[in-house]
TrEMBL record:
This is ATP-dependent DNA helicase. GO terms for biological process: DNA recombination; DNA repair; telomere maintenance. Its cofactor is Mg(2+). Residues 150-199 are annotated as: Disordered. It catalyses: ATP + H2O = ADP + phosphate + H(+). Keywords: ATP-binding, DNA damage, DNA recombination, DNA repair, Helicase, Hydrolase, Nucleotide-binding, Nucleus. GO terms for molecular function: 5'-3' DNA helicase activity; ATP binding; ATP hydrolysis activity. Its EC number is 5.6.2.3. Belongs to the helicase family. It comes from the Eukaryota. Residues 217-362 form the AAA+ ATPase domain. Pfam families: PH_LRR1, PIF1, Pif1_2B_dom.
């Protein structure tokens, strides 16, 4: 007797991220940010689609009756759901991009199914009927998105059927979840699962797959490679493939941590600055909540590991063994370390000896597999790649230097927005900016900040990226230094050019920053 083939489907696990809720009431926006929350898709007793946000302190939920998705920054782990009926924007950030993609695909797919009227007839109930209904308050996790539903959604959107995606014919292959099908794909690149290929449009390189295999085999892995070889790209894939409840995502710095939706290694470890003695670190890590986290951890991801101080790494290894009461290296935690020791070193105080973590006995004990990515994916000009590789090793031949010099006056400009020039010192930045501003012929407009707390003015001036006095002219280049409205691309780092001043407002043409 033949067993019926299981239909491929995609289930959606809770999404861990930061959510900023922006609600406009009587013309005034109200904002609140919730870090480290879990987003879940579900249905209530009336079969309405519900988005539920569970945080450490409270839970909130919204009905997903009419919404729009803004996914321009999906690759950076950011997206916005605009709820039209309530003038509310839910801005998600710090999410693992792959998980966010799956979450939004399921959301969009279920919306399309609901629009077709297949999600039940309870929607026809009036508000009064709902109010008077004796149905219990319920939240039931949404069912997985089936391939059939997905195909239907694509058809209704006027997009080509699945088999035509990327112009490749795809084989029918049962798969339960994006994770399991993804693993199959990574283990056997020749066999492509219908679901996984669709949800993972970009395939890993052979080198990247080797890292995935090493991680799946449970080894503690360090993978490295020069700039652009896809370390962060791969790390995000790994994050999406490990069990969320026992995987902790960290990085040596806050900026690096925010890129992968994690926290700093220091914050995870709970040992303060880590500069105290081992006994002090142990005392701090033994606090109830911290120790519980250490015990819960089975897989620890550390990005930009080159910046982790060697002595700190040694202390953490000892803390892990002690708190977890496990004598295995790093207390039995699988380490997934990523970085390039030829890029950024640990931050040290003046006169302090610099110890990289790979130089420590703890590293020797813990890291059982080291792999290097060599295939540069960011650039495809072989000559440029060769120059970059040589410079990475501190070598710059005369021919390479000459080639680089030839690009000095290149004008990289799009829509009037010039490429940003990076400097090592603020003084150089200020000087270049004022030279360019003076070159513009228009009238200067001066904007002076208004501080509500005059006592804190000095502190504010010293700690904010923009000075108290801002001078602008039509045609000047500007950069946002704060996330204003993620859904509209007004994010920290977005660049623009001032096109006009109208009624006290500054009109700008903006462009989001590329990596
Ligand atoms: N397998 C792949 N297929 C297609 N594109 C890829 C692949 N791997 C990486 N990329 C792309 O290559 C670019 C560089 O990748 P990534 O930023 O992860 O490199 P990196 O090694 O982390 O670089 P850096 O050291 O500068 O941070 C990105 O645009 C990424 O999307």
């Amino acid at each position: 007797m033949e067993t019926p083939e299981k239909e491929p489907q995609v289930s959606v696990p809770p999404l861990q991220c930061t959510v900023t809720v922006e609600r406009t009431q009587q013309g005034r926006p109200h904002c609140s940010t919730h870090k480290g929350v879990r987003l879940m898709l579900g249905r209530n007793a009336f079969r309405d689609m519900i988005l539920r946000m569970e945080g450490p302190r409270h839970s909130l939920q919204w009905s997903l009756d009419k919404f729009r998705l803004h996914t321009r920054f999906l690759k950076e782990g950011k997206a916005t759901i605009s709820l039209q009926d309530t003038n509310t924007n839910l801005m998600m950030s710090n999410a693992p991009p792959h998980q966010l993609l799956v979450f939004l695909k399921v959301l969009a797919g279920k919306k399309a199914v609901a629009a077709e009227g297949t999600a039940g007839t309870a929607k026809a109930l009036t508000a009064r009927q709902r109010l008077l209904s004796d149905r219990p308050v319920a939240f039931e996790e949404i069912s997985p998105l089936t391939l059939k539903e997905y195909k239907g959604a694509r058809k209704r959107e006027g997009r080509p059927p699945l088999k035509e995606v990327n112009g490749q014919k795809q084989q029918q292959q049962p798969g339960a979840s994006p994770l399991s099908s993804k693993r199959k794909m990574q283990d056997s690149p020749g066999r492509k699962s219908k679901v996984s290929r669709f949800f993972n449009p970009t395939l890993l390189t052979a080198e990247q797959r080797k890292v995935v295999q090493a991680v799946s085999s449970g080894q503690s892995v360090f993978f490295t490679g020069s700039a652009g070889t896809g370390k962060s790209f791969l790390l995000q894939r790994l994050v999406g493939s490990l069990p969320p409840e026992s995987t902790f995502i960290t990085a040596s710095t806050g900026v690096a941590a925010s890129h992968i939706g994690g926290c700093t290694l220091h914050a995870f470890a709970g040992v303060g600055t880590g500069e105290g003695s081992l006994e002090q670190c142990l005392r701090l890590a033994s606090r109830k909540a911290v120790a519980q986290q250490w015990r819960q951890c089975r897989h620890l991801i550390v990005d930009e590991v080159s910046m982790v101080d060697g002595l700190f790494f040694e202390k953490l290894e000892a803390v892990a063994r002690s708190v977890r009461k496990n004598d295995k290296p790093f207390g039995g935690i699988q380490l997934i370390l990523c970085g390039d020791f030829l890029q950024l070193p640990p931050v040290t105080k003046r006169g302090e000896q610099r110890v990289f973590c790979f130089q420590t006995p703890a590293w020797e004990r813990c890291v059982t597999c080291t792999l290097e990515l060599t295939d540069v994916k960011r650039q495809d000009d072989p000559e440029f790649i060769e120059i970059l590789q040589a410079v990475r090793l501190g070598r710059c031949s005369e021919a390479a230097a000459e080639k680089l010099q030839q690009t000095v006056n290149n004008c990289v400009e799009r829509d009037g927005i010039k490429a940003s020039r990076l400097c090592t010192h603020r003084d150089d930045v200020d000087h270049i900016n004022s030279v360019h501003l003076n070159d513009l012929s228009g009238q200067e407009r001066v904007f002076v900040s208004v501080d509500s707390d005059l006592e804190q003015q000095g502190v504010l001036d010293a700690n904010t990226p923009v000075g108290r006095r801002l001078v602008l002219k039509v045609g000047c280049q500007v950069m946002l230094t704060k996330n204003l409205e993620v859904g509209r691309g007004l994010v920290n780092g977005a660049r623009g050019v001032v096109t006009a001043f109208t009624h006290g407002n500054t009109v700008m043409h903006t462009m989001c920053c590329d990596k």
